[in-house]
Write a structure and sequence with these properties.
There is one protein chain. This protein has 8 helices and 12 strands. Helices cover 38% and strands 22% of the residues. β3 and β4 form a beta hairpin. The protein is elongated, with a radius of gyration of 26 Å. The chain starts with a strand and ends in a 15-residue tail after the last helix. By secondary structure, it is of the alpha+beta class. The strands form 3 sheets. A 6-stranded antiparallel sheet has the order 7-8-9-6-10-12.
Length: 364
């Protein structure tokens, strides 16, 4: 797409036309196709007030895609498999060294290639999954399920409570080291963000606009549970499948345009071929997304079987919610029912205490 001149006639530098950070699409429109396929017909305006025009638009703007919503494309599937809280945190150098040393011991040769990325934790103080993004640099995320409206991020996932969860899950005595030791000789964590999100399994009803000038890819076209790496891989395959189609379509359209200029009435064949070929992007990619969504859900359900082996049943929270939402319990004030739910969760996780064992290295 090309950027329209600013009000003063100036334009962005060519090298600025590739990436725009901190900028979101806030307006989208299409003008009717003209006799010249090369004439821009798709217009977007961004949150920074910039306007761009082009022949095609590829929308990769995430699961809450503005473009998809603007086109009125529905999503099919389960939009609420589970609510979770994502905690992004960083361990200091000493704690990172300990955790990587443990990982090397459990990973075989200690070379690091087989260190696990996902660590599922089931104990009486935490049920969650640690995601090791870069253990040597201390970059981690913790995924913890939570249940609206009986849990809230503000009360149940405050920074203090989240830090307690992290220490309980890592199995390390917090502030490890001798009393009075320098800060660099003690274990520590830095909580960077605490954000709720909703796990879903969704596929867009179609991958293009009616004009076949606007296309969806990645999370804008599908959303999977993060179980198996299907989300990113499917998105990359979307981009690959569409890139060569769009390059060839542009070549055919440009050739057709030149033929029209040389001989009035000829050249429409290339435009028709381009439209047909781009339509096949939807035909090929949507079934793959549906298949991968099903595989992701199956993988997620398999993790629930692991929890079941640890005395937890994924059906129990749903039963708790059903009881709290039904009369006469639902006549109680919400805060009272929240306390009841927290008590039920605490009771359900008490048996997990028997799984905790001491670690000779100083953890639990």
């Amino acid at each position: 797409m090309s950027e329209e001149p600013d009000a003063d006639g100036g334009r962005a530098r060519p090298d600025d036309d590739r990436l725009r950070y901190g900028e979101a699409v806030v307006h989208l429109s299409e003008s009717p196709p003209s006799s010249s396929a090369a004439e821009p017909i798709v217009t977007i305006r961004t949150s920074n007030g910039r306007t761009y025009r082009g022949q095609y638009l590829l929308a990769c703007d995430g699961v809450r895609s503005f473009v998809r919503n603007r086109l009125g494309v529905p999503m099919a599937g389960d939009d609420r498999l589970q609510e979770l809280v994502n905690v992004h945190f960083r361990t200091n150098a000493r704690l990172s060294e300990l955790l990587m040393r443990r990982s090397a011991r459990s990973g075989g040769d200690g070379g690091g290639d087989d260190r696990a990325m996902l660590h599922f934790v089931y104990n009486s103080r935490l049920v969650g999954c640690f995601v090791c993004h870069d253990g040597s640099k201390g970059e981690w995320a913790l995924q913890v399920p939570y249940f609206l409206p009986y849990q809230t991020v503000e009360k149940d996932f405050s920074e203090r409570k989240v830090r307690d969860m992290i220490w309980a899950g890592l199995g390390v005595r917090r502030e490890g080291g001798d009393e009075g030791a320098a800060s660099e000789d003690r274990y520590d964590i830095d909580v960077l963000s605490i954000r709720p999100w909703t796990m879903s399994s969704l596929v867009a009803g179609r991958y293009h606009s009616e004009s076949k000038r606007i296309f969806l890819a990645g999370d804008a076209a599908h959303a999977f549970p993060p179980a198996g790496g299907f989300g990113m891989n499917t998105g990359l395959q979307d981009a690959h499948n569409l890139a060569w189609r769009m390059a060839l379509a542009l070549r055919w359209e440009n050739n057709s345009s030149r033929r029209r200029e040389g001989c009035e009435g000829e050249g429409s064949e290339g435009v028709s071929r381009a439209s047909t070929m781009l339509t096949r992007y939807d035909i090929e990619r949507r079934p793959i997304a549906a298949q991968n969504a099903a595989l992701s859900v199956r993988n997620y359900q398999r993790t629930l079987e692991v929890a079941k082996a640890c005395y937890l049943d994924a059906r129990h929270p749903a039963l708790f919610l059903q009881v709290l939402n039904a009369p006469p319990t639902n006549l109680l004030p919400l805060e009272v029912r929240r306390e009841m739910f927290r008590g039920l969760v605490k009771a359900a996780t008490m048996p997990l205490g028997s799984l905790t064992a001491r670690d000779p290295s100083g953890g639990t």
